[in-house]
Specification:
alpha/beta, six-stranded mixed sheet, 39% helix
Length: 211
């Protein structure tokens, strides 16, 4: 019981520090954003701010591993992520996990999802390595959950099994969910998402934010 309380307190400290870092690096942006998956919204996690310095992504990846449930660590064989931020995060996490794995655990692998006409894609090379493997999918932010679902479908089609999803920031507005655990480093309640055809900002002719 005491160990559980201490662990929860440690996780709270990690999450609080991570949220301060997101604010300090101006990662959280407000405006009119097209998420590229059929939805628009007012909040965006800017991966360019987060990933421009390798030391930052290493620290955030380590924070995610610190709050990662033990069974994720034990079960994961492949860490996969969508382009671009998720792929960078997945590669870093796979390396950090591999650096501390016990000798009895096979080496962690990495797999990136590409981008094909705005949708995740899995190359034949990486698809061939999913067969019979347990996959953890990670991303920089969960907006609607659609990207996770599309990535998971690709893993399943390739013969792999998604055991869980993780992200740096969860906007708590997901409208698509998977039947697997999801863990975030930071939760940030944001304004709602809108289907592109029913976006009030588009109706008011507010230009889409570019950067």
């Amino acid at each position: 019981m005491t160990q559980t309380i201490a662990s929860n307190a440690r996780h709270d400290e990690v999450r609080a520090r991570a949220f301060d870092d997101l604010r300090r690096f101006e990662v959280v942006m407000e405006g009119h954003f097209d998420y590229g998956n059929g939805f628009h919204g007012r909040l965006y996690l800017n991966p360019h701010q987060l990933f421009q310095y390798p030391s930052t992504i290493w620290r955030v990846a380590q924070d995610l591993i610190d709050v990662m449930p033990a069974d994720f660590v034990e079960q994961t064989e492949i860490v996969a992520g969508p382009a671009t931020g998720g792929a960078l995060l997945a590669h870093t996490m796979a390396g950090l996990l591999d650096g501390r794995r016990p000798m009895t655990h096979p080496a962690y692998s990495f797999a990136p999802f590409g981008n094909q006409e705005g949708r995740p894609a899995l190359s034949p090379f990486y698809a061939s390595r999913m067969q019979g493997r347990r996959v953890l999918i990670v991303d920089d932010v969960r907006n609607t959950g659609t990207t996770f679902k599309r990535c998971a479908d690709l893993v399943t089609a390739a013969g792999g099994r998604v055991i869980a999803t993780m992200q740096i920031l969860d906007r708590c507005e997901a409208c698509v969910s998977l039947d697997v655990p999801n863990v975030s480093l930071v939760e940030y309640k944001a304004p709602p998402n809108y289907a592109a055809g029913a976006c009030p900002m588009c109706a008011s002719h507010v230009p889409v934010t570019t950067f």
